[in-house]
């Protein structure tokens, strides 16, 4: 007669002791509720939700090799998972002032939209839009994420510049490509010159005028219809240490066509045409788009306290990253 205990129907799992169960439980990764980041010597404590709401393009700069939001160290000697409050610090090569700028903008936008403990936000006043017949603003109004989330346009620029000095032979590099003091000084002055050029669209508009690029003109027009202004400047701009590179970022609230009146004197109104324009930018939600172009100009570097003005050829390789974030 067959042993029923070996039947897959009657077979039962062996009894697991409490200590064994505890050990297995401790082997499961524990999700981090907050992260401790060291950005070039400056410490930040950020909760997981804040990190997850950051733009994809910024996250790729912060964590180019990816980020695991769980504790990786497990202490099996005593069956415990270690001290939950023990800090695991992630070293990040990213400008801390830029990170602070992004965090503050996103926090302010979130508080303004969702409200705080003492102040109601815009979202509460927009509830009436979900009750509006869908035919008025297009199909599936209740499924439009721009009604229930705060949308932020994220535009970043990575600018690498290359300076061609005058042909007087004083500025040069050695056989290893190391610049002499004169060349290094010209590079620094070139960086300072570009740092002062804070206008967002000047370089791209110059390229449009030069190449008659209709697609680039359309990009400028779309951004200016969606929240930017043609005279806007970069919200943050800084030279990268030990590199001929300038990083810039601009953040603006997406113009959705929703109008709020002070003190709620009138119901919220929605411009369906502007909303249709805004919805086009949903193509860039979690899908950053990049554009790269070269820009070459003869520029005059301003005189300094101990050096006169200098004309150089300045080449710039610009990489734009456009993205939409919903918080």
TrEMBL record:
<dbReference type="InterPro" id="IPR011333">
    <property type="entry name" value="SKP1/BTB/POZ_sf"/>
</dbReference>
<protein>
    <recommendedName>
        <fullName>Phosphatase activator</fullName>
    </recommendedName>
</protein>
